[in-house]
Design a protein that fits this description.
The protein is mainly α. It is built from 2 helices and no strands. It starts with 19 loop residues before the first helix and ends with a helix.
Length: 58
């Protein structure tokens, strides 16, 4: 198995990553929405707009 970030061989203790650095890069992508799938679903859009509106008023 290769690391999904840099394609080097994965380390058993860090699978599927080769290093702590690549694991942290992956975590950062999750936390910042880098893996989010865009949606055009009206319900998703409305929920996002409602969330933004609530956040601005707090």
């Amino acid at each position: 198995m290769t690391c999904p970030i840099c394609q080097k061989p994965a380390q058993e203790a860090l699978r599927p990553f080769c290093s702590k650095r690549c694991a942290d890069i992956d975590l950062g992508k999750w936390l910042t929405g880098g893996y989010a799938i865009p949606s055009n679903d009206p319900e998703d859009l409305q929920e996002a707009e409602d969330s933004l509106t609530r956040d601005r008023h707090h």
